[in-house]
Amino acid sequence: MFWAGCIYGCKNDGERFGFFCHAALEFLQQSGFHPDIIHCHDWSSAPVAWLFKDHYMHYGLSKSRVVFTIHNLEFGANNIGKAMAYSDKATTVSPTYSREISGNPLVASHLHKFHGILNGIDPDIWDPYNDTYIPVPYTSDNVVEGKRAAKDALQQRLGLKKADLPLVGIITRLTHQKGIHLIKHAIWRALERNGQVVLLGSAPDPRIQNEFVNLANHLHSSHCDRARLCLTYDEPLSHLIYAGADFILVPSIFEPCGLTQLTAMRYGSIAVVRKTGGLVDTVFDVDHDKEKAKAQGLEPNGFSFDGADPAGVDYALNRAISAWYDGRDWFNSLCKKVMEQDWSWNKPALDYLELYHSARK
Ligand code: ADP
């Protein structure tokens, strides 16, 4: 009751999380559990970095080292800047994003201890062979059959025409970061190419939510059999879209890592992305990134574009949809290939272990 009372007494998220950070450190101190590494993520646990150094390090927790990870520099800049200064090592969630933000004043003076390590997905949660939300379990061996059944179920559930058409899925927060104007453009482009579009997304900003409600209504009258916008948060539906789509579009303006494209690949969907942040490190264009993929021991796995204007989206989406129409065998083999790439924590975990070891030296 006392704890709950304190938390409810907090005026804002900053105070609430500050209180939690104190509580976590107090727990470590009093329980006698002395970790080698205290790893804090983003602004909400950032206070641990300075509370630890200022108040706890000298009282029994001296062997612990603090690692701080930036997940998105847009949120909580003050906390992030302070934690960057106080931590022994700092990371962000992809090598490319680490370079993109290296000039930011919050980061620039800490480059000597700053690293980019990719996020991973949990392959047990995102597993088309063990997924109660999709109709036919599949691996890369029966990806065509599995995805056909999932597309069928998706079309049925959303009242779309049951037809063998290229289906573009979009699963996203609807915010500026995610490239809203590019998303809108892509919807129309996909429809022009006689494709189907399913968007699952919600906007924290009511004005943006409203814009999409209007677009949803418009599409409902103009393209009711080929477009559906689901303007809500619905994890079960996201599984069915990952499985039933041919393409997952991620046209972010910036993207620290991005999980959507990784999950898409796990379900044999082809990522169509803007070249930014973690999207650069995980999606290798079939026409342009053969060498880059090879350097990672991989084969190209998607379509990407530069720039932030509609012409860029067109360039990637047109090639993707044409590939679907023109060479289904090739396209199916690409789906199989992307499913076999490992975007789990296997490799990032090794990178973190190495970082933890170096933090302790
Ligand atoms: P961010 O954390 O910036 O939103 P990420 O790509 O890192 O972007 O992670 C987004 C995650 O949230 C993905 O797993 C995606 O499937 C999920 N997601 C986003 N919007 C929705 C939604 N409306 N319904 C269900 N899942 C969603």
UniProtKB/TrEMBL annotation:
Residues 161-283 form the Glycosyl transferase family domain. It is an enzyme of class 2 (transferase). Coiled coil: none annotated. It catalyses: [(1->4)-alpha-D-glucosyl](n) + ADP-alpha-D-glucose = [(1->4)-alpha-D-glucosyl](n+1) + ADP + H(+). Its main location: plastid. The keyword Plastid applies. This is starch synthase.
